[in-house]
Write a structure and sequence with these properties.
Blueprint (H helix, E strand, L loop, with lengths): L4 E3 L32 E8 L4 E10 L6 E5 L4 E6 L4 E10 L2 E9 L11 E7 L2 E5 L10 E8 L5 E8 L7 E13 L6 E4 L4 E4 L9 E7 L3 E5 L7 E10 L9 E11 L1 H17 L14 E3 L7 E3 L2 E3 L2 E7 L1 H4 L22 E2 L8 H6 L1 E8 L2 E6 H4 L20
Parallel strand pairs: 2-20, 2-21
Antiparallel strand pairs: 1-16, 2-3, 3-4, 3-7, 5-6, 5-8, 6-7, 8-9, 9-19, 10-11, 11-17, 12-15, 12-16, 12-18, 13-14, 18-22, 23-25, 24-25
Length: 405
């Protein structure tokens, strides 16, 4: 089975990659570079009919071993311009929960491009002026299908297929968003609220803690070409792997695959970067001049900049998988054997709801599972009866196909 190239930078946010609230940053060991502090990293894709987001960061030296990490750039001025220097759109700081997302800028205006026109990203940070090359939008064909298969170890691969009937686009990259509905191991009919010290009945409404939804997104850049085929197509390319017994297998799963066409220059740039990381363990190993990024510092031509800006339209494909029917997920089997508190085993009956205010009960993570009578309560580990404990949310997507709450 063919696999998309999963490119994750070590030490820097993936260029032209996730463009989401949570980037993927990890340290890497620098090779043969005396000083990489302060290098601007520009992550961005200009999207005609989707979300356009730009993330700015700089590298910093954090110890004597030349390890680096990213620090986000605030207060930048970012414009999308045409060849006549007309402003097409302005990027504003992205706001989440009333606060700016560090280093993230979004273009909220709907962008449309003129045939034959080229565009560039113009960035000003204080007195420094940066600009990408002027590039033409790349056509993105439709996604033919997104499919899945189960491996011998009960893990899952998710694949994408596409082709361009016009034979114009031969280089692609993808990102995805995934949502999965899952359940707690046990369906409690009540829960104890330690703030009000009351027992709250739970029905199968938004008050229950049995059904939850978890959201995630691609953590690496996925790109490929159709060079192996005689026509512009990609067939059954693996873009995601779900390990065996992952919570995604619990109930209902959905993945939204986003596809973008890129030109050969962008593809070659990412290929070169990946070769450097694979061979040298360093993003800053010597690179052929023709494979450099397409962003320059106009105010100081000697200043290096990392990044490649491309322009494309976005096409999407949403797939639902009824994971419950696959029967590949098992909840933790220790819900009835977990550590106890004050001598009370999970599953046993306690005589007073005030028991759940006791420090030992909190320490053991015990909660009410059933009310048997006004003075008899059956307890279980909270994580066994409350799906939110494992990071999920009660915020059900508007498009979700069932009526669970």
């Amino acid at each position: 089975m063919k696999s998309a190239k999963h490119f994750k930078y070590f030490g820097l946010l993936s260029v032209l990659a996730i463009l989401s609230l949570a980037g993927c940053i990890s340290e890497y060991q620098q090779v043969g570079v005396s000083d990489t502090a302060g290098i601007l990293v520009v992550d961005g894709l200009i999207v005609e009919n989707g979300q356009t987001a730009i993330q700015l960061s700089r590298t910093i030296k954090v110890d004597d071993q030349f390890k680096t990490e990213a620090v986000y750039v605030q207060n930048a001025q970012i414009r999308l311009i045409d060849e006549s220097n007309n402003t097409i759109a302005v990027a504003e700081p992205q706001i989440a929960d009333g606060e700016p997302v560090p280093g993230m800028y979004v273009i909220n205006d709907e962008i449309s491009f003129n045939t034959g026109m080229k565009y560039a990203l113009d960035i000003r940070i204080g007195n420094s002026h940066y600009q990408s090359d002027f590039v033409s939008p790349v056509h993105t064909p439709e996604i033919d299908e997104v499919t899945w298969s189960i491996n011998d170890d009960n893990s899952m691969n998710i694949m994408v297929s596409t082709h361009d009937p016009s034979n114009r686009t031969k280089y692609f990259f993808w990102r995805f968003e995934e949502i999965w509905e899952y359940t707690a191991a046990l369906s409690a009919n009540v829960r104890y609220d330690p703030v009000t010290r009351t027992v709250i009945p739970q029905s199968l409404t938004g008050d229950n803690r049995y059904y939850c939804w978890h959201y995630d997104h691609s953590k690496s850049m996925l790109y490929s070409s159709s060079d192996r085929f005689s026509e512009a197509m990609v067939k059954d390319l693996k873009i995601h792997h779900i390990p065996a017994n992952d919570p995604r297998f619990c109930y209902l799963y959905s993945i939204l695959v986003k596809q973008y066409g890129i030109d050969k220059e962008a593809y070659d740039y990412f290929e070169n970067l990946q070769r450097n990381v694979d061979k040298n363990g360093s993003l800053f190993a010597p690179q052929p001049a023709e494979k450099e990024g397409n962003i320059q510092c106009l105010s100081n031509p000697d200043e290096p900049v990392i990044g490649y800006i491309a322009i494309a339209n976005e096409v999407t494909y949403r797939l639902f998988i009824d994971m419950e029917k696959l029967n590949l997920f098992r909840h933790e089997n220790n819900c009835s054997t977990a550590p106890n508190a004050e001598g009370v085993e999970p599953g046993e009956i306690v005589p007073s709801r005030e028991y759940f205010d006791m420090p030992a009960a909190h320490a053991a993570g015990l909660g009410i599972y059933q009310v048997l009578s006004p003075s008899r309560y059956r307890c279980f580990m909270i994580r066994c009866v409350d799906c939110t404990v494992s990071g999920g949310t009660k915020n059900k997507p508007d498009f979700w196909p069932n009526e669970h709450q």
